[in-house]
Amino acid sequence: ANPSILILAGDGIGPEVMAEVKKIIGWFGTKRGIAFDVTEDLVGGCAYDAHGTPLTDATMAKAQEVDAVLLGAVGGPKYDVLDFSVKPERGLLRLRKEMDLFSNLRPAQCFDALADFSSLKKDVVAGLDIVIVRELTSGVYFGEPRGIFTEGNERVGINTQRYTESEIARVARSAFELARRRNNKVCSMEKANVMESGILWRQVVQEVHDKEYPDVELSHMYADAGAMQLCRWPKQFDVIVTDNLFGDLLSDMAAMLTGSLGMLPSASLGQPMANGRPKALYEPVHGSAPDIAGQGKANPIACVLSFAMALRYSFDLGDEAARVEKAVEKVLADGVRTADLMGPEGGKPVTTSQMGDAIIAALDAS
Ligand code: NAI
Ligand code: MG
Q: Which residues take part in binding substrate (predicted)?
């Protein structure tokens, strides 16, 4: 059977950027003889409009069956008034939770043509290509006890950083597996100097390494020092693995090393399925961008690069993933720009669809 993909384009610019990915999926079928079984369904506000829920049980079941889910974005001002239980982002949270997507891959990749966009000096970021692996389903955002309590005559807000050994081990494995596909190098970040969970994190990552991945080069760094190093000389890293809280901060920071939100892909991976590949959901980092929705202004590259990650991690088509990434690199080098990629000097931006067509043309030439 062909590899299967469930497309959940969602709201706002989600369907606009996903339309360009669908063109590329079509291109793989006709030009490379690589066919995918694609089904499409609703998530977020559009699912609420149709079914009164941001994700139906039937869609959830489909997501559990396919080889990969591609998601656009969810949400919009129209849905802000809804009850929390049916808000668009609940659809996404349900997918992450029920698919048990504990490993969040956030690449920070700087295309040379966009190096001027970084907030850092060009030579610090040009050619940068690192991945932050963030634990996504445990840690201080979920640990109990949590809440606002009364203690004596004042209130106290409590969250608990809690990690089990198996939670640490599985995200460590995910980072080591990734490293083996890349440059065989992992840096693990925690605060073992001041946190018990950090001490355990460091021990377990080291143990998993020594037992199962001795071939991978492993280093440890305190997360605050890691933040400094990421700013100072990010190219010293390749794969960084860290917990939910530190990963949230470090991945947002690393993202800005490289420029526009419209460029950033992500993958969220879970346990291996029967075919050995992890459960997986791929999505751009950006949201539904209601301020530009429906105007053909959205940059589809984040969504296109998310599909490239799917080719690599869910379908073992690393060469084809590189082909897509090179095509993106070529159109950027040729000066093709959506509005978000234009500097203050301006110029004539292309539309979402023109950007997609330029990527297809570059693929044709590859
Ligand atoms: P946003 O990421 O949608 O937009 C932030 C800014 O970046 C806007 O000015 C937007 O125009 C621009 N932008 C984002 N993606 C772009 C692209 N591909 N091309 C060009 N410009 C782009 O974040 P915001 O405005 O905070 O949230 C808008 C809605 O999206 C909200 O309803 C929010 O809940 C939702 N959201 C959904 C996410 C998801 O589906 N994973 C993630 C973040 C926000
Ligand atoms: Mg964040």
A: 96, 106, 134, 224
